[in-house]
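Protein 1 of 2
SEQ + STRUCT:
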Amino acid sequence: MPQLRYQIPCPNCNNTMRNDSTICAGCNARRNLDECHRRVADISPSERFWGKVEITSACWLWNGSRNWTGYGMFSIGHQHILAHRFAYMTLIGLIPEGLELDHLCRTPACVCPEHLEPVTHKENTHRGFMALGGHPNSRKTHCKNGHPFLGEHVRITTAGSRRCLTCKRNYDALRYQEVRR
């Protein structure tokens, strides 16, 4: 004769469980999670980190999780850090205040400290654009309306970008007409 199943209180938390179980589903999930966390806690962050690095002839590639731009992400407890920053700080030392690490190899997943150089944000951005052939707008020879970016047709703004004066004059004339109505 089959045994009847009915609900009884869990001895750990008083949640209901089936009478043929020794622990409820919630306690079982917490126990498995605790065991998982205990296993991770037994490994040092440095051991976990280097276990996710593949050393190739060109770069040291991060095989762990990556952000949307391709840079490696590493977690220590609840703190997330970029993998190349962790590698640099572990092997070289602190990153100087006000500087960020530039990948000289142009590979975001690389964590090799020899391929990382502390530079200002401006320098890092400039180097990134130069690797792509310069800023996309710097290659433009004409404005979106076809006027050339030459001589009297262009003005350099305080931000360093170019502004087509013919388009600006046309825009200003339209706005003036609208205001006069």
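Protein 2 of 2
SEQ + STRUCT:
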Amino acid sequence: MKYPLKYPNMRAELVEYIDALVDNSSQKESQKKTGGSIYGDMDHVVHFLYDDTCLAENPSKALGWFIKNEEEIEAINKLIASFELVFEKYGTKSEDEAYLKTKEWNCVVENAKKFKDILDKNVDKTWIEIEKTLKHNLPARVACPVCGNGLRIYDQESPRSAVTRVMECSVCGASNAIKLPR
């Protein structure tokens, strides 16, 4: 089983920004509420991708730090390429509302959706690995597949013949459970 990435909080931040990009209706609603900006401000997303991390320049450098595999790197490259198309055509000084109205922005949203699917699939695979391990023993520490922090693991007795092993992350709120035979 793989253990936490070096910077799980950065991964959690990445996931949050990708979720925001995927939710196009939320973008438009937020843009109305904040008077022209999305996510409170699209600057946060752009700064994360372009300035605060190496994702726009070379996402391979983030492998093992807050990126899990080559599939995620490929998805990031496609997302960055779609941002680049928007910036090449409309510049980097436009209001968020202007970007949202372009057909090129739809490409950003579509690539964000594909990246989110990959992130979600990787989380699901990790839960499955954790479940396989926990069916046989209760290790001292298991990393949360979403944020990388430690999971709280405990058993709940059931009135029937099974025990439910619960896994919860107090940091990001992720949880899962498996039924264990008695």
